[in-house]
Amino acid sequence: MIKSVRLCSVFVFMITISLSDQTDNPNEIDCNNLRMGQYICPHPDYDFIDPKTQQPKGCTKENKAKIICQAADGIICIETKNNTFKKDIPCKWTNGYSFETSLLLSIFLGMFGADRFYLGYPALGLLKLSTLGFLFLGQFCDVILIATQIVGPADGSQYVMPYYGAGITVISSNNFTYRVPQSDW
């Protein structure tokens, strides 16, 4: 009799535990670990490009922006309890300095240092103003440096340019960079 009571209590205890485990949704997962093809970024219902800066909204100085993504059907995210989640994407932080404006200032008023004043380099602007753009040689160099985006705003931000504009991304290498040998080398 005591054995059957113990067995019955163990059975009731096991059923209680198994029923409590079923409250978790088996389709709830951490959406930050989804693979490509299991989500779409950005969410198609949200407009995420800021028209003033032509970069994702909320771009920080660390060149990251959070956007809303949508998981595939049947996947529920733990973070939001639905099929949307936030993901960091790379962006270019801008502070309002236009690429076209700085290039035009460099071409037409570069001998007076207007481009350097605009970009936040007042000492170089005064030097160019007092020497007539280093006798136009400094103006020519600045046109090339601004056109190739080597010289940017003094605060470390990027130029405002069209989203699919002529932006340049510098790829650097060092002693730890591995280049895959090609068959035609």
Describe the structure.
The chain has helices spanning 2-21, 99-109, 114-119, 122-130, 132-135, 137-147, and strands at 28-29, 39-40, 49-50, 55-56, 64-71, 76-77, 84-90, 94-98, 158-160. The chain is α/β, with parallel strands linked by helices and 185 residues long. A three-stranded antiparallel sheet has the order 2-5-7, with no helix packed on it. A two-stranded parallel ribbon has the order 1-6. Helix 2 (99-109) packs antiparallel against helix 6. The longest helix has 20 residues, at 2-21. The termini are far apart. The model has no long low-confidence stretch (mean pLDDT 87). One of its GO terms (cellular component) is membrane. Residues 1-20 form the signal peptide. Belongs to the TM2 family.
Biggest β-sheet, characterized? 3 strands, antiparallel
* Sheet/helix structural class: alpha/beta
Tell me the number of strands. 9
Q: In whole angstroms, how far apart are the ends? A: 85 Å
Task: Give the percentage of residues in beta strands.
Answer: 15-25%
Helical content (DSSP H or I, runs of 4+): 25-40%
GO cellular component, one term: membrane
Protein name: TM2 domain-containing protein CG10795
Domain TM2: 96-144
Signal peptide: 1-20
Layout: helices, strands, pairs:
Blueprint: H1 2-21, E1 28-29, E2 39-40, E3 49-50, E4 55-56, E5 64-71, E6 76-77, E7 84-90, E8 94-98, H2 99-109, H3 114-119, H4 122-130, H5 132-135, H6 137-147, E9 158-160
Parallel strand pairs: 1-6, 8-9
Antiparallel strand pairs: 2-5, 3-4, 5-7
Helix pairs in contact: 2-6
Signal peptide: 1-20
Protein name: TM2 domain-containing protein CG10795
Subcellular location: Membrane
